[in-house]
Amino acid sequence: MIRLNAFFTVKAGVTTAQVKAVADELVTLSRQDKGNKGYDLFESTTQPGVFMFCESWENEEVLKQHAASEHFKRIVPQIEALCDGGLHIEQFNR
Questions:
Q1: Tens-place pLDDT, residues 58-89
Q2: What is the pTM of this model?
Q3: Nearest C-alpha neighbor of 56 from the set 16, 3, 8
Q4: 34: Cβ–Cβ under 8 A, 6 or more apart, which residues?
């Protein structure tokens, strides 16, 4: 099992609604990917503008397939355009 936590901080002036409009599509489509065990978006309650994708995958192979998917390649750049400093990803293996 692989767990990814992808953190990002939105740029000044970007709203939660703008983030969710883009991110919710990624969540919905990624949950349908082969080998996905969980895919959620969280907003920090202690740090305004900080979000985290929390993902769980069966193995490295299905994670690579996810990263090569059309929806990932299309939506992640849209999310990065809303970010201040890009996404910070931490990977954990079980």
A1: 999 999 999 999 999 999 999 999 999 999 99
A2: 0.92
A3: 3
A4: 62, 65
